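Troubleshooting log. The previous run stalled partway through. Resubmitting the same two chains, unchanged.
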Amino acid sequence: MRTKNLKANKNNFYNMHQYSNLQELQANLLMKKFSMEDVVLAYLDKIKTDQPTLNDFITIMEESALEQARLLDEKIATGVKLGELAGTVLAIKDNILVKDQLCTSGSKILENYIAPYNATVIEKLLAADAIIIGKTNMDELACGSSNQTSYFGPVKNPLNTDCVPGGSSGGSAAAVAAEHCAVALGSDTGGSIRQPASFCGLWGLKGTYGAVSRYGVTAMASSFDQIGPLATNPDDLFRVFEVLQGQDNNDLTTLDYKFDFKDADKIDIKKLRLGIVPEYFAKTDKPELYQELLEELKAAGLEVKELTLPEPDLALAIYYILQPAELSTNLARLDGIRYGYHSAARETLDAFYRNNRGAGFGAEIKRRLILGTYVLSAEYYDAYYKKAQQAREYLRAEYRKLFENIDLIYIPTTLGPAFRLDEKMDPLQMYLEDIFTVSANVLGIPALSLPLPYADGELPRGAQFMAAWQREDQLQAIGQFIYNKIHKK
Amino acid sequence: MDKKEVGRLAAMIKLDLSEAEISEYTKQLDKVLEYLDKLQAVPPQAINYADWPSTQGQKDEASNSDSDLRRALTSQFSKETLEHLEVPAVFSENKEFKSKQE
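Second attempt completed without errors. Output:
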């Protein structure tokens, strides 16, 4: 069993070499203390050693990563201006298209699907001189909270290999925690970035719905999905988010605003009004840890208000009606005809469809397809789907009022730390894992998960901060404050 | 939710399920649906029901795609094997399919 102390958390190439973040690495890269090829080779070496145990990658992009590294070294040698993410080695969740690479979404039905184009986020990363080292394992079609539903086998938590890394972006979280890359991209539909970040001792961000383009992402639940980063520190996290964010003509749900990394410096932390829900802390296995951070924030001068929020059960119920409904609609296109798994049984076209889908999807997907079809069917539409949409509007109105009097809401990310691989096999129990994270997706507000301090031999737990729509700058400000105050001590 | 309902829904979305899967999902989804009733916690006065479109009167039933319309459409394609349209760029590269054709 491997354990880490947060204060001595020396992740990644640059931390191994005493650089605390990407900016320092970039400075040393420019001083030619090492080459980008050295950096990529170090990561590849670590990936190859750990992959048989952790299973965090579906595709390792060795050749193209080294080619990108050499190109960057040439740019440095010739004095060409570098992009803002030069030196950043990233892993990409396998539901995001990287041209000419497999994009399986962790599913048998897409096991042979090669991406014909780059997702918008990939174009942006490449334009910023980032290097992509591979595609990470994930719960099948992003449905799951443990990374156990992947067709390519479960991912193990690098902090304790008997435990899950969380899901559905479990491979991305494991890759960052295991020093296989500096930053990874995940997608967050109900907590799929924040929950694995919490389980692996990382920083994870889901932006406002519409902050980041979804063009080139395997659609799961379109009104909830958002791509976001996982990193070891807030500096890297928000620098990558700054590159990813922005309006995109290929995704008409993207919003017309621009997140600027420098804006957080203008925020006076003492003027932030913090809302807390003490009952939520009490629901976790270690309420005192959340209280300790709260005391630090109070001591720093933040105004703290106790809130009465609508029960988290309500957001979870809304989510588990609308998400399967959207999933069943989006996955209707996966029939094995043009790509993906196709069965040998072809007596009739209908039998061909049924067999392809029956054998191509795993149990969790089938369960949600049935549930989604049920809540959309004529007999139950009013009782479930319509009611859930109405309840979603009700919640949004309640939170709009709430954000008139507060800036941030501080709650736990999860009920406890990473659970064991063989634990929580009951679907409802697994769905309850998302209880604190789904609200941000139901509302479309941004949310940050950051690791609370933990000792050797313990597993980490995440603290979650939610802000009003488009206020990622406030999340960055509180994140950087906590990092400097607590994590850097 | 009962087994018959799960079977009917699976047929509608063209999803092969074994008897064991139908039994398992029926039990599990029944429990999930019980939880989803927490939706009733929304105060009815908080929602303006008049703003929402009413349910379409469409009946949900599984339908076979072997319709006259489909036959009329497929007959316009030059290459057809059994009931499948041939799309060379994709299927001709698939070894399994190719050997079946041979």
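Takeaways: The longest strand of chain A covers residues 131-136. Residues 6-272+404-487 of chain A form a domain with the Amidase signature (AS) enzymes fold (CATH 3.90.1300.10).
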